[in-house]
């Protein structure tokens, strides 16, 4: 089984960016732990601050992987194009947000991408990624 994790803008700064919201662990450390928890799953990781690159990665993996975990970060609330890309692929996508987007600024309460996803996990910290992978493995 192959799962692609795609992180959007500013998530390359995990561990140093607003630790009170996002925690103090960087994603490279976290993904090593995640891979240990799912030894029979190939978990690939991609991060970009560029909307078009995220769309390209969805297109690239959206027909050959068994699942995609997407944290679109700020693009969640603004990108019709990423939503269209999710709708266009066959691979199921689970949307993840580290913080609870409904407990934050009002503009973060709307996801333009979530309706095209198998499900949305929000507010569970980095553990949301584990939950998403587990969901995709059990599908």
Automatic annotation (TrEMBL):
What SUPFAM superfamilies does the record point to? Type II 3-dehydroquinate dehydratase
Q: Which residues form the active site?
A: 22 (proton acceptor), 97 (proton donor)
Gene Ontology process terms (BP): amino acid biosynthetic process; aromatic amino acid family biosynthetic process; chorismate biosynthetic process; quinate catabolic process
Q: Which reaction does it catalyse?
A: 3-dehydroquinate = 3-dehydroshikimate + H2O
- Entry's CDD domains? DHQase_II (cd00466)
Alphabetically sorted, this entry's keywords are: Amino-acid biosynthesis, Aromatic amino acid biosynthesis, Lyase
What family does the Swiss-Prot or TrEMBL record give for this protein?
Belongs to the type-II 3-dehydroquinase family.
Q: Which protein are we looking at? A: 3-dehydroquinate dehydratase
